[in-house]
Amino acid sequence: MYDLKNIETWESKFGLLPIKLDPLIQEDKFLMLNGGVGDFCLRTSSFEKGNIEQIFQESWSTNTKNFLFIGEDSIEVTNWYDSKIENISKSRVNLNLEQFYKYLSSKSYKTQNDVVPFILDIFRQLRNITFEKQDSSEAINLLFHLLISLEEDYTHIDTKKWGISESNFPDKFDYFVGLINQGVRNIKPNLDLILRHTSGVLFQEAHREVIYFNPQRDLFGGVSSRLETKLDAYSSIHYTPQYIARSIVENALKSFDLETKEIKILDPSCGSSEFLIEVLKQLKNKNYNGKITVKGFDTSDSAIRTSNFLLTYENRKQWNNEIVVEIKKVKDSLIEDWGKNDIILMNPPFVSWELLKEKESRDNVLNILEDVIKRARPNQATAFFYKACLSLNDGGIIGCVLPTSIFNSEIYQELRIKLNNELSFKVLAKLGNYVFEDALTDVSLFIATKAHSILLPQLLWTRNEKGVVQDALREFRKMNSNNELSVDSKSYSIYTPSHFPILNKSWKIISLRENEFIKELGIFNKAEKLSPISEVFDINQGALLGIKNVFKISSDDYELLPKQEKKYFRPILTNNSIRNGKISVYEYVWFPYNKSGLIFKDENELEDLSFFKTNLLQNKEILEKRAGITHWWALTRPRNWQFIKEPRLFSSRFGSSSSFGFDKEGNCVIEEGNAFIPKRTFDSADYYFYLACFSSSVFDLLLSIYSKPIMSGYDLGKIQIKNIPIPNINKNLLKQEPAYLKLVQLGEELQNGNSIVKPVIDDILRSYFYPNF
Questions:
Q1: Where would you find the membrane-spanning parts of this chain (predicted)?
Q2: According to a count of CB atoms within 10 Å of the terminal CB, is the N or C end of the chain lower?
Q3: Helices (H), 327-440
Q4: Which residues, at least 6 apart from 274, have a Cβ–Cβ distance to it below 8 Å?
């Protein structure tokens, strides 16, 4: 039987995080957090009749539906949306706890009548009045007044007490005051619960850039709530989902000494202070009573206003105004004095070097990173990350969201080495591209302390699919609550590796299955049965043509060329030309080169060519504008290794095991892809051997470990795959082995279009080269 009055039961069974609803008043009321889906309120005592209005108010104001009361013999489930009170025997729940929780989750779906969309609807109306397109400072200040009207007369507010500015109220502002005070179904909003438990989702809307307003009023003074806001999938500003901030704070505090008498907390890109509010909430939940200083920087005026409002309220209501709050609007956080801090939490701006338009911003990034990054173009988030690590006190902890490139990219190698020596890693997580709303950024989490430790970090890997991250973080909490060592499923893995970094000079996070596989590979590497690709091949990039659709022609157009001109064209390979080992030619490229280089050195030599008249001459002006080109009719980068026709193994630029092909005649030119040039002389059989190896499911697994994932597969370029271990035909008399001959034959079958042999290839590779695949 489960002890359902024990909050830890719900944490260990379902991975829920219990947060006290109001630690100053009710010690037995909790908000049970599940990553935003299936959250509910819970009280570890019996339901009190006649108090249903307050119960509905508390569940609605915390953006949940259900409120559970755990009695001695039964559980009462109230639901404000259904206006129901259900009585379920505790014994029945105990027998079917999993089913009971699924039932609760099914009754927790989101609606437009929930507290967050209800308030946002009013907020959008205010924005249609203030007409603030990029900065919603005035509308957000009006929203503060509206929220405060839930507790006080908005016309006589002590602005210093509330941490807000004076506002010029628009005509018929009382209409909006009446709206928010009325609530939904006569459920009056509870300001304290709204600000403590739903402020993150609520106030992130304030940062949206409006691209269309609709200020039309109705007969009663209301304004349309219809706005079109900017949702940029490639923006550098990504708002931290509450469940992400919550998990980072939760795991950071686990590694922090809460016996310390004073804590200095910093968020250098605080936004609306999602992290700062969350850490204060969890510190209060843990009954911390030492001195606290919170600092935050941001460039947005509306963000600073929101932070001041929320932190002032939290300080006054929960901490008796004993917290020191320092929130500052800045031009660039990187040039501010961050001081030394005990806890640094952040989601820094993910601004690529190319998007840093101002030279001053680029200089600020380079100045911070000058001792760890040379001759590279770093992301701005890297400078935030490095400065944060340098701004920790001894024993301090950092918890942050980061671009995954910091974990993997070669340009951050020195930074990783330095921090690996100075920090003790606690949790590293690869979360993928589906964390931020309407953004495609590849995201990871990083939690570490500035303290020496022999303990290895916990690693969390997730499959790059929607909805997986919430499940994985909840399972992480559940695993730790139950003191389990690892969790492994198809969609995520959580474990402590035998060593870290797993891959040399990288912090790449891989699944538990991949980790076990790579341990076996290490044994074979030491026995020299496998070698890195870079020891067997040079990997060269394909040609850069120059101007799109000028130099390429279709196969049909090629056939129509005069016979004497065809020698200046060669089949071209693109991402669409290779499939499961078979090369298909759809286009030809103008390639006027021989082993000595460009054939035509003077424009007059081209005048008799029909292609010159129909394609080149009419594009002469634009072709001449290309930088670094001596002859305007030449390709921008033909790659001189393609001048000589030799057998070559090719791959597309991005892809998987299905993206390799062999050109036996050596006639093809590769554009969107790579050529694998043997470091020692190959015969045709050797090429077929490696075509089979690269076309296997085993190689897909190796790509998942070593390469960078993209939407259509993996990056097949030299930097990403050079360390992948493959059989080396130049060692251990491999060419005399039966496996070699079998794989050669299977490679020939692939080139002929027989892809059904791929499972046979896998079997041979598993038997001879990759055990425990």
A1: none
A2: N
A3: 359-369, 380-390, 405-408, 413-422
A4: 200, 204, 239, 240, 242, 245, 347
Q: Classify 538 in phi/psi space as left (phi over 0), alpha (psi -120 to 50) or beta.
A: beta
Contact yes or no for 393/422 (Cβ under 8 A): no
612 secondary structure, DSSP code: I
pLDDT score recorded for residue 130: 64
CB atoms within 10 A of CB 217: 15
Using an 8 Å Cβ cutoff, are 181 and 172 in contact? no
Q: Which residues contact 190 (CB under 8 A, 6 or more apart)?
A: 57, 58, 61, 150
Q: Sorting pLDDT into bands at 50, 70 and 90, what band is 214?
A: very low
Which one-letter amino acid corresponds to residue 361? S
* Parallel, antiparallel or unpaired: strands 458-462 and 424-432: parallel
Q: Where are the domains of the chain?
A: 7-106, 115-229, 242-509, 537-768
- Residue closest to 303 by CA, chosen among 247, 362, 349, 243: 349
7-106 fold:
Trna Endonuclease; Chain: A, domain 1 (3.40.1350)
Cβ atoms of 494 and 475 within 8 Å: the answer is: yes
In the predicted structure, residue 225 carries a pLDDT above the cut 80: no
C-alpha closest to that of 294 among 254, 334, 266, 275: 266
**Pairwise CA distance, residues 581 & 228, whole Å:** 48
pLDDT at residue 27, as a whole number? 74
Averaged over 520-531, what is the pLDDT?
Answer: 76
pLDDT score of 229: 44
CA 65 – CA 107 distance, rounded (Å)? 7
For the record, the structure tokens of 193 come out as: 């619960």
The DSSP annotation for 497-533 comes to: -SSSSSSTT------HHHHHHHHHHHHHHHTTSEEEH
What pLDDT digit, counting tens, does each position of 672-688 carry? 899 999 999 999 999 99
Rounded mean pLDDT, 452-456: 90
How many angstroms separate the Cα of 604 from the Cα of each of 171, 198, 562, 769?
A: 77, 73, 19, 58
Taking the C-alpha atoms of residue 52 and residue 63, their distance in angstroms, rounded to an integer, is 17
CA atoms of 380 and 441, how far apart (whole Å):
14
The end-to-end CA distance of the chain, in Å, is: 41
Neighbours of 184 (CB within 10 A): 18
Question: By the 8 A CB rule, do 389 and 399 touch?
Answer: no
**pLDDT of the residue at 205:** 62
Phi then psi dihedrals of residue 580, to 5 deg: 50, 45
Q: What residues form DSSP beta bridges with 651?
A: 660, 674
Please report the pLDDT score of residue 131 as a whole number.
Answer: 58
Contacts of 323 (CB under 8 A, 6+ apart): 280, 292, 293, 294, 311, 314, 315
Tokens of residue 306, six digits = 């929101």
Mean pLDDT of 641-670: 94
Radius of gyration of the chain (CA): 31
CATH number of 242-509: 3.40.50.150
- E strand map for 409-469: 424-432, 443-449, 458-462
The model's pLDDT over 424-453, given as tens digits with 9 standing for 90+, comes to: 999 999 998 888 765 678 899 999 999 988
- State the Cα–Cα distance between residues 404 and 432, nearest whole angstrom: 8
The pLDDT, as a whole number, for residue 504 is 83
Report d(CA 148, CA 166) in Å as an integer.
Answer: 13
Helix (H, G, I), strand (E, B) or coil at 572: strand
Q: Average pLDDT, whole number, for the chain? A: 90
Sheet holding 537-541, edge to edge: 537-541, 673-678, 648-652, 660-663
Q: What's the CA gap between 528 and 419, in Å, rounded?
A: 32
Q: What does the pLDDT read at residue 331?
A: 95
